[in-house]
Specification:
The protein has helices at 12-27, 34-41, 45-48, 55-78, 84-101, 103-111, 120-144, 153-165, 167-172, 179-190. With 197 residues, it is mainly α. It has two domains: 1-53, Orthogonal Bundle (Arc Repressor Mutant, subunit A); 55-190, Tetracycline Repressor, domain 2 (Orthogonal Bundle). The longest helix is centred in the last third of the chain and has 25 residues, at 120-144. It is elongated.
Length: 197
Amino acid sequence: MAKIKSNRTSTRKDIIVAKAAKLFREKGYSATSMRDLAEHVGVEAASLYNHISSKAEILQDICFRVATKFVLFIEEIDASNRSALDKIEAILRFHIRQMIENYEEVYVSDREWKHLTDPYLSNMQSQRRAYRQRMGSIIEEGMRRGEIKPIDASTAVLIMLHAVSGIESWHRSKRKIEGDKLEDNMVKILVGGLKQS
């Protein structure tokens, strides 16, 4: 029977979670079984239970690991002395880089979180709402300072987050531009559209 090989940077659980994220993205959380995951990892299904208790635990791990990363970043940026426009650009660039470099986990966290069960589901809904509100308040701050044109902040946040979510199609494209160019183009369009002329 094969064993899950860990290394210096990843535990066995990390490896299982990474493989699960790939499967959840490809097949969807609901359609992925523990047997599918065991096969993908290359072990017997029973071996997985030495490292995780359930498929639900993996989804929780993915969703809250990603959410924590984003919350810590926005808190750090919001507490800085940057202009509101610079804060929005930094947050947007962070979102784009995460979607490019940690695609599987970010995609699953963004699309499959609805399969969480309470109390995790309610917690995730609250975190997502609070995150969007915090982005919106930075935009409103920029409007008050005259840096950002008068717009509906919640609509701007929605457009930006949906645009980043759309990077999924970039991953599937056979003729795609480099990640850095994608990032710069998105920032020019999305942040440039906020600037007070």
